[in-house]
Amino acid sequence: MSHKAWMKTVPTENCDVLMTFPDTTDDHTLLWLLNHIRLGIPELIVQVRHHKHTRVYAFFVTATYESLLRGADEIGLRKPVKAEFGGGMRSFSCEEDYIYENIENELYFFTSQERQNIIRYWLENLRAKQGEALHNIHFLEGQPIIPELAARGVIQQVFPLHEQRILKRLMKSWVQAVCEAQPLDDICDYFGVKIAMYFAWLGFYTSAMVYPAVFGSILYTFTDSDQTSQDISCVVFAIFNVIWATLFLEEWKRRGAEFAYKWGTLDTPAESIEEPRPQFRGIKRISPVTSAEEFYYPPWKRLLFQCLVSLPVCLACLTLVFLLMLGCFQLQELVLSIQELPRIIRFLPKIILALIVTACDELYKKVAYWLNDMGAW
């Protein structure tokens, strides 16, 4: 509820990323984290707000235009270059900022997604110093602070804010539009390249499905009812699908490369090694690879947990589902065998089965979360 409440509010100052805390968070935790953010990331502007109804504290996080430019240089954000300097896409550099398009316009140079991406990068790279601790949470040297606090539940959520103006425009030009091309550039600017690439593929796939649909319908219409004609039609349609699938794949490779070049991700260098999951726990040791302190969990313990806990729990869940379904089927047979029962009672086993499926879904979701978290140890 707190997440929905924050999403409906209008910030009293500029805000790109919102960080919320549980209503049980004490002042020491808030001041500790606020001090670390302001000292460790001086580029950020953080305002503390308290939600009146949910009693939840939140940090409204944003940054100045100059700080965002330095952040874009730091993460190598790719931006379009002016035509007189060669055009195309290039990693941003503060030393040559004059060569980029719209650099003079603070409102249009960065999209909201780019601003939020830079701020998220800073927040996720706030590192702990040696021996730092918050209550019973002890950090390793160089460990990211905010992902660890989020995994521990100290931070409730960290999420970017939507821009209602852009959402309304996308609603009209994309969601509510009929028989019109998707505004892929607007989607990329707002949601990022990965989301835009997914919808580009989805639109291309949907359009490509028209060809087998039309050919299959024509083939079905002119096929006789005898077995020989049907067999010939199946062979012809199978050959058509093989050709269509090959052309579809090759055309999408070409189309995807065009989008990747257009959006500046075609020659993006490989991502650096990701940080370990914040939920991962273990014993502290010196890494034989990096010579830095890290958490280590022996593989034999993980294998032992999988064999003695994960496997029996999964088998027990499957057995429970089988027995419950078998019981519902037996109840259905019993109800149908009694002719004197009212008609509405005959639907009772199906209703019970639907309730059981819903309850089991919630139960198994909690079990899956527990097994996943335990697997991080």
Task: Label this structure with key terms.
377 residues; alpha+beta; 3 domains; 4-stranded antiparallel β-sheet; 12 helices; 11% strand; transmembrane; Anoctamin; Anoctamin_TM; transmembrane helix
Task: Describe the fold and architecture.
The strands form 4 sheets. Strands 2-3-1-8 form a 4-stranded antiparallel β-sheet. It has 377 residues and is an alpha+beta fold. A hairpin with a 2-residue loop joins strand 6 and strand 7. 54% of the residues lie in helices and 11% in strands. The mean pLDDT is 85. The chain has 3 domains: 145 residues, no CATH class; 76 residues; 97 residues, no CATH class. It is built from 12 helices and 10 strands. It is extended, with a radius of gyration of 28 Å. This is Anoctamin. InterPro entries: Anoctamin, Anoctamin_TM. Keywords: Membrane, Transmembrane, Transmembrane helix. It is a multi-pass membrane protein. It holds the Pfam family Anoctamin.
Overall pLDDT score: 85
Number of strands: 10
User: Percent of residues in helical segments?
Assistant: 40-55%
- Gap between N and C termini, in Å? 30 Å
Q: Give the DSSP E fraction (strand runs of 2 or more residues).
A: 5-15%
Main sheet attributes: strand count, strand direction, barrel closure: 4 strands, antiparallel
What low-confidence regions span 5 or more consecutive residues with pLDDT below 50?
Answer: none
Give the ordered list of helices and strands. Answer: HEHEEHEEHEEHEHHHHHEEHH
Overall number of domains: 3
Adjacency order of strands in the biggest sheet: 2-3-1-8
Discrete helix count: 12
Structural class: alpha+beta
GO molecular function, one term: chloride channel activity
Keywords: Membrane, Transmembrane, Transmembrane helix
Pfam families: Anoctamin
Membrane topology: Multi-pass membrane protein
